[in-house]
Design goal:
heterodimer; A: mainly beta; 3-stranded antiparallel sheet; B: alpha+beta; Alpha-Beta Plaits; about 40% helix
Chain lengths: ~60, ~200
């Protein structure tokens, strides 16, 4: 069975791990909204969200 | 400068389309980077050569590769899926043609919507508010997930902090309050406030 996707409570990156590999913070199973950042330097959305690494992010985490 | 456009998708497949599109963009851009690296190697080789003619040949080849890489690259920057807009995703790219190019063959995508979306419009989707903030006591809602899926109910209590809503199901013979998650309801009818009825 596929592992449930979780989002880091700090950087919002979506992962299947219990702790975020970048910030070492606990991840949450309850997240909403989804954004895939391909080019963080040129993306206005990435700049607004403060994202510097490309990847998949959640918009709201509980 | 990035522009944001809406892409129509099959309802329920928004995230799959966004992921497929971005994965493809990443793959193509990686290949373009590879071509650029090859071109740089050729330039380096040309620098080492003393024969002008040979060097020119390498430089020309490098130029061609760089041009090919630039042409093949997709200038798509991000894709956003919001729970508030069903059947659409928002794609940020250099221009419309870049999205058109990258969307070709992506299943469940149903084409680009005409016209740019101003960034101010998109900003509200970046900080989604819980549906609980919009629900009031007395509203009629439909449960969209869980064991009571499809049932209609009236809101009796709203817990903003925990994002939980307590409802009373219409179909139940005995009105038992059921507490559900804020995300598992859809508001059907708002309660008409007293000011509205009197005015």
């Amino acid at each position: 069975m596929a592992k449930k996707e979780k989002a880091c409570k700090h950087c919002r990156m979506i992962t299947s791990e219990d702790t975020c590999i970048y910030c070492n913070v606990n991840t949450s199973e309850e997240w909403f909204g989804f954004v895939y950042i391909v080019n963080p330097e040129k993306s206005e959305i990435a700049q607004k969200l403060g994202v510097k690494i490309n990847g998949r992010y959640a918009l709201r985490i509980r | 400068m990035a522009n944001i456009y809406a892409v129509k998708t099959t309802v329920g497949q928004e995230r799959n389309v966004a992921e497929m599109l971005c994965r493809r963009v990443e793959k193509v851009n990686r290949e373009a980077e590879e071509l650029n690296r090859e071109a740089e190697e050729l330039n380096h080789k040309a620098e080492k050569l003393k024969l002008n003619r040979e060097a020119e040949k390498f430089n020309h080849k490098a130029e061609k590769l760089k041009h090919k890489a630039e042409k093949e690259k997709y200038n798509v920057y991000s894709a956003l899926v919001s729970n508030e807009i069903r059947g659409y995703i928002l794609v940020e790219a250099q221009d419309k043609t870049e999205i058109d190019k990258s969307l070709r063959g992506v299943s469940h995508s149903r084409g680009l919507v005409k016209g740019k979306i101003p960034f101010a419009e998109v900003e509200k989707f970046l900080e989604p508010k819980s549906i609980v903030t919009k629900v009031k006591q007395g509203d009629i809602v439909e449960l969209i997930s869980g064991p009571f899926r499809g049932e209609k109910a009236r809101v009796v209590r709203v817990d903003q902090k925990k994002e939980k809503i307590t409802v009373e199901l219409f179909e139940a013979t005995v009105p038992i309050p059921v507490t559900v998650d804020g995300e598992s309801i859809r508001v059907i009818k708002k309660e008409v406030s007293e000011d509205e009825t009197s005015g």
